[in-house]
Amino acid sequence: MSDMIDKQGKLKLEIKDFASDQDPRWCPGCGDYAVLSQMKKILPNLGTPKENIVFVSGIGCSSRFPYYVDVFGLHGIHGRAPVIASGIKLANPNLKVFVFTGDGDGLSIGGNHFIHLCRRNIDITVVLFNNRIYGLTKGQYSPTSLKGQITKSSPYGTIENAFNPVQMALASGASFVARSIDRNPKHLAKVLDAASRHKGTSFVEIYQNCVIFNDGTFSKYTDSDKKKDNIIEMNPGEPYIFGANNDKVLNWNGFDFDIEDYDTTKEDSYLRHDERHGHASMEFMLASMSQNNNLPTPIGIFRHENDATYDDNLINQINEVKMKKGVGNLKDLLFSGNTWTVE
């Protein structure tokens, strides 16, 4: 451990320190490789010892993550990663806990657990890979599959409305909510780093391409000739500028969003992004743009608030009770009240 401490006494880790002895087993070209690469890049900069980092996952292609990074990990059952991660964090609040999940694992059988994790604001980072399909089980439609999508389990097109993961996280009370894309590595690394440093429930939705069962579902956000007209990168304090030549801007007319030609002489009149002091109504409006084909889709941080965490509140409550009643004794508790002996 001593060779990992620099002259200033700070922990010094490199990307290679997080390489496991397992070879990633995803399909060639899968977006999961990009997420893994950016995750390994940001981990050394967190200043957290490897033995204090825990990766938890459920079931799905994304849920193989714990095998591919040399930290403590637990591969749980379908949809239960938020529950397992919550238990780990509450048992040892000093740990940095991550959940890696997919749109199927996290929003179908795991949807209820995800909601309550966000509601409690437990200090856990949730990374959700959204490829709008069940990949591991070979191509059934998922909670985020688009209405009308042809899949193995919807041969005539799904008739369900799709979940919006960002809206779900916002409505459930997560204190950090963001979105990025697997094929935008710099942006992805920046968002993952910010989410990892946040204290509270941080949620990152990643648009992730499944090359086998749903290839190209996010092509308008990744193809070089389309992405600039269809993506807005949200930056604190800046207008919502986009377009191939940065010549368009999203503005608010009092009732809805308008797309205008960007004019530098009108800078003061443009709506500006505020992730830390934003209003819930605006957060939801921005999140809903991904479901409107006439508007570009925002990526970046929708919400970044500081709020008391469940784990801190729990520790404080326990300490308060100890101050009032003293430290308990398990034996006294077990033998208190009416007891009997079976002979």
Brief overview, please?
The chain is an alpha/beta fold. The protein has a domain at 2-217 and 305-315: Thiamin diphosphate (ThDP)-binding fold, Pyr/PP domains (Rossmann fold).
Describe the structure.
- This protein is of the alpha/beta class and 343 residues long.
- It has a domain at 2-217 and 305-315: Thiamin diphosphate (ThDP)-binding fold, Pyr/PP domains (Rossmann fold, 3-Layer(aba) Sandwich).
- The chain contains 12 helices and 11 strands.
- The strands form 2 sheets. An 8-stranded mixed β-sheet has the order 2-1-3-4-6-5-11-7, sandwiched between helices. It has a 3-stranded antiparallel β-sheet with strand order 8-9-10.
- It is globular.
- The model has no long low-confidence stretch (mean pLDDT 94).
